[in-house]
Design brief:
Length: 205
């Protein structure tokens, strides 16, 4: 009994196969999806941080000075790293559950709260590094931006062409059990493209 993920359903020599060609699906493995999440998250963190500093400069009566960003280069390196670490600890890069919209929002709120606590400590110890108003603007930008991004991702990868495709190798009760378990899975969404019968012909829906 074997289950292959992300494979194109093909017949093995001398074996019967039954496949569903209704949706051909795109090959987008878990590793590629995780890279996509990490890269877009990093971009959004940097954009949010840049916006937060610009808003802080304007509301503080200062001219918007991009050169000021270069003097705080370490913030733009540390912040994405902190986000990645906390996001990973909160399973924001867990691919099977990444299409669950409710969990995405919950994990974003938890991660943002942890960052808020951490940054508040930093602003108390070294206010010149990270002014508190920058932190407030950063969170105001981050929460809706990340929520929109992750909800878009969840909707996109719940579409039939991007579902996790499964080709079942087996027959009879074992194959039916696999199909039932996959359909009962609430986190990951699978598209069963067919099965390969390695013995007597299997019949199931």
């Amino acid at each position: 009994m074997n289950v292959q993920l992300g494979s194109r359903p093909t017949s093995l020599p001398g074996h019967k196969s039954k496949t569903n060609n209704q949706h051909r699906g795109l090959n987008f493995p878990f590793s590629a999806r995780r890279v996509l999440l990490v890269l877009v998250d990093a971009m959004l963190v940097i954009v949010a941080l840049s916006g937060a500093f610009m808003l802080w400069q304007r509301t503080s009566g200062l001219a918007v000075n991009l050169a000021d960003f270069s003097t705080r280069w370490y913030v733009f390196i540390a912040t994405p790293a902190i986000w990645w670490t906390l996001a990973r600890l909160n399973d924001l890069y867990d691919i099977p559950s990444s299409t669950n919209k409710f969990l995405n929002v919950e994990r974003i709120v938890i991660t943002s709260t942890l960052i808020l606590v951490l940054f508040l400590v930093v602003s108390l110890l070294a206010p010149h590094i990270l002014p508190r108003l920058v932190l407030a603007y950063y969170l105001l930008i981050t929460l809706p931006t990340f929520t929109l991004w992750r909800l878009t991702y969840a909707s996109l990868f719940s579409a039939p062409p991007l579902l996790n495709r499964v080709l079942i190798v087996g027959k009879g009760n074992r194959a039916r059990t696999i199909i039932r378990k996959l359909r009962e899975e609430k986190m990951a969404k699978y598209q069963i493209v067919g099965y390969i019968d390695v013995g007597e012909e299997a019949t199931f829906d």
